[in-house]
Specification:
The structure is a single chain. This protein is an alpha/beta fold and 279 residues long. It folds into two domains: 7-23 and 74-276, Collagenase (Catalytic Domain); 25-60, no CATH class. Helices cover 23% and strands 19% of the residues. It is built from seven helices and twelve strands. The strands form three sheets. Strands 1, 2, 3, 7, 8, 9, 10 and 11 form an eight-stranded mixed beta sheet that branches. A hairpin with a 5-residue loop joins strand 10 (193-201) and strand 11. Helix 4 (143-157) crosses helix 6 (226-239). The two termini are 31 Å apart. Zinc ion (ZN) binds at residues 18-20, 234, 238, 244.
Amino acid sequence: MKTHRTVPSGLTLLAYLVAFAVPVVLGVAAVGSSPYLLSKVVPEEHRETVASFGTAAASLSGAGGGLFSPAAEIGEQRYTIPGTPVAHEGEWSPRLADDYPAPEGLVPGVDFAVEIVDDTYIAHWPCRHDVPVWSFDAPPGSEADLAWAVETLASASGLALRYAGPGSEEDRESRGAISVTYGDHPMFHNAEVAGVGGPAIWPEGLILQGSVTLRPDQISPVPGDPWSRALTMHELMHAVGVDHAARHSREIMAERPGPDPQMHLGTGDRFALHLVGCH
Ligand SMILES: [Zn+2]
């Protein structure tokens, strides 16, 4: 975790990292037709098994974990540095969760969830502040999907997110920005974890920093790949303070994705973005 290195002593900071699992069903169903999917979804030691199973294996890899997934735990880490709050920056004020009841038909914790600080405040970025999203070590072909995800989230949330291109080392730790790194992360020792993302949260829910790490082998070299886009969107949504919806729900923020990657925001996703956004 790099986020808490940049925080001056005397601040309280909560940093969340939430992992996103690989959709095993997708990988198995695609065996034979797509070597790319096979290599990106199935751990090497299982590949022969998967290949011999072929599409019949798809029916074995349904709910409850599937063929190769002994119920992977979704990781979450939290760091606290004791101290006093920072002054609020720009147009920002605390947002009380009680002021935002769920609309009819949406169930909190099932259809959507956001980060709540002290059981009281909805964590959110400042509005009317440019939030650059920098990429680091982005593989060829990935840029268009990242730009697409940033634009989609900006439009749906009203947050002033913009894709800013490859960042420098300085940008990686800069406050007021989101970093998207294509590379390794300690949580990736679990072969099912495809990406992690989260915000750094100051007292009363002020978010001033976000970080995302994506496993490069989960990103297609061909722009427009549904899984690359779903994964990128999911982790970016963590970075703006959105938490998981129920497993296999038709939301980008589903705790575990279903067989079809969600490329489009669900109604729960949209309400969560309203809670953390600027509309
Ligand atoms: Zn997640």
